[in-house]
Design a protein that fits this description.
Layout: H1 3-27, H2 29-82, H3 88-170, H4 174-186, E1 192-194, H5 210-217, E2 231-233
Parallel strand pairs: 1-2
Helix pairs in contact: 1-3, 2-3
Length: 246
Amino acid sequence: MTEPTMGSLRELQKIEAELKELEAERVAFDPLLAEVEEPALALESQVSSSRDRLEQMRTDSRRLERGAQDKQARIKRLEERLNQVTNVREEAAVQTELDLVRRAARTEEQEVYQLMEQVRRAETALEELDAEAEAARAEVEPRQAELLEKRGQIDERIAEIRVRRDAIVEGLGDMERRVYESFRDSGRPTFVAHLTADGACSSCWGVIPLQKQAEIRSGGGLMRCEACGVILSPEPEPAGEPEPDA
């Protein structure tokens, strides 16, 4: 394997480590955003529930009002009928029915009044709750915008790194690409390690057979550690750029 190819694999190893770190950092924003937004969401949920209850109360109020109006119309018809009766028996029957309808109408009108009062109080409470929710949302938005901006910056960085990674992968040979992709898909953080001076894999510290050591040091192609499977390089990472832990 040529030194440029080994350098590309090492660069991909660093890129994958950086991507893993950035992606973990990005995921950490989700609970932060949820925590920041929780007070506003709780109030908005209460507003929604209160609005639904208020609408149901209004529906019930309209139903009771229609019922009360129907009874008033029935009372009027019975009063007209009472004025037209021709005998005592019929008068008694009409009067009895009229008294029953009047009592029912009074009861229903009282229910309408009580429900309308409840609607009025619920409307006032909803206005106050809605104002609280708007204030909470206004308080949340600056911190939420700050977190979203930071997360967006991480997304941009991730996208940039992925473009650079894809460009490097495009320059690999078919075999090197397959090996790299197998390591990436497995989630293993280390896929390139150097052969130490005493002939060991710097990833698992297993001793490499002498013949294989010679082939690795002579650049004899894609050589992997039989113990841990990493690609072995004859040269360590450049100074100041340590290999990631396995």
